Amino acid sequence: MVRVTVLGSGDAFGSGGRFHSAYLVETPGATFLLDCGPSILQALKRARVAPDRLDFVLLTHFHGDHFAGVPFLFMDYRYESRRTRPFTVFGPPQVERRVRALFSALYEKTADEPSPFPVAYRELATEVAVEVAGVRVTPLPVPHVCELVSFAYRIEAAGRTLVYSGDTAWTDDLVRYTHGADLFVCECSTWETKLDIHVSYPEVATHAPKLGCKRLLLTHLGSEPLARLDEITLEVARDGMTIEL
User: Fold this and answer.
1) CA distances from 12 to 17, 37, 52, 129 (A)
2) Measured between alpha carbons, how far is 96 from 100 in angstroms, rounded to an integer?
3) Vertex 110: Cα angle to 67 and 105 (nearest 5)
4) Are 188 and 219 in contact (CB under 8 A)?
5) Residue 155: strand, helix, or coil
6) By Cβ atoms counted within 10 A, which residue in 5, 33, 121, 216 is the most buried?
7) Distance CA 84, CA 102 (A)
8) Beta carbons of 20 and 65 less than 8 angstroms apart
9) HEC states along 185-222?
């Protein structure tokens, strides 16, 4: 069985009081995060999940609402959980530099001290799958902002497949990425506003019938879709919800 818990389904602005992007995935061999927004500790503890249960984190890109929670995990591991076992941060190119720089900016003295637990960083390459603890992860390119490499992820474990869009504009590649998936967690940031870096509800609703997934869940919800929830016919994520695949 694979269990997915929505820890944060909000956008960069915390619209509707929702936590920033973070999704807890539990498989028979590993427990990990998809993205790690800055509200991660609050979200984990509200869900009564000990942060030390995490084996690794997969970062889709380096915008603050998706990766700024990693230093807070490090702080918890040093001073609360007293972690000793290894932790791995996976992400696009320059993941180590970006995370280390952020940690130093937030907690300069602590970031310069030796870590009491081993931390590894692994750069992922587009469409090159990696396997860790029985989980197969394929990073897939998505169009977000020109200055960053941004990934969606296709995750296969225990005979189940999860696809997470990360932040993206609509691209027909999503149809290919989601073929046969048990769950597609897709961003839906706007409604009336058309952006070339995010998906709007009319776009995803129009294209939903050709997605090859068994279940579609909208997330990263901005103020526009939240103001019109009674008009949305697709399933909408909420903080704290759990899905078993």
Assistant:
1) 11, 9, 26, 28
2) 6
3) 45
4) yes
5) strand
6) 33
7) 22
8) yes
9) EEECCECCCCCCCCCEHHHHHHHHHHCCCCCEEEECEC
Tens digits of pLDDT across the chain (245 residues): 999 999 999 999 999 999 999 999 999 999 999 999 999 999 999 999 999 999 999 999 999 999 999 999 999 999 999 999 999 999 999 999 999 999 999 999 999 999 999 999 999 999 999 999 999 999 999 999 999 999 999 999 999 999 999 999 999 999 999 999 999 999 999 999 999 999 999 999 999 999 999 999 999 999 999 999 999 999 999 999 999 99
**Residue 127: both structure tokens together:** 């469409």
Q: Which residues pair with 136 in a beta bridge?
A: 131, 156
Query: In which residue are the tokens 């500790």 written?
Result: 41
Structure tokens at 112: 């310069």
